[in-house]
Design a protein that fits this description.
This protein is mostly helical. The chain has one domain. The chain is about 55% helix and about 0% strand. The chain has six helices and no strands. The longest helix is centred in the middle third of the chain and has 11 residues.
Length: about 100
């Protein structure tokens, strides 16, 4: 399980990429945070985040990705960049019968 120390830089990135909750709440869910960074982050955001998270953390976020965050392009890009091939289908929501 990833644990993140909420630096001022990470809080600023969290504020930019996750608009529906506080940055502190966002950083308590590193998978949610990383998935949003991989989809909505700018290069400056990635520089900040890459200094606090490893490739293994990014891979774990892909494996546990919440449905509805990634678009197809970002999903394929990050799997390619992180060497996770073949690219699986995007996560989907499961509805009870």
């Amino acid at each position: 399980m990833m644990v993140v120390r909420p630096t001022e830089d990470l809080l600023q990135v969290a504020k930019r990429v996750v608009w529906f909750q506080t940055p502190q709440e966002t950083l308590r869910d590193p998978v949610l945070f990383l998935c949003h960074v991989m989809t909505y982050g700018m290069i400056e955001d990635l520089k900040v985040v890459r200094s606090s998270f490893s490739d293994d953390d990014f891979k774990e976020a892909l494996r546990q990705a919440h449905p509805g965050i990634f678009d197809a392009r970002s999903w394929a890009y990050w799997h390619l960049i992180l060497g996770e091939q073949p690219v699986p289908p995007l996560p989907t929501r499961q509805f009870p019968d």
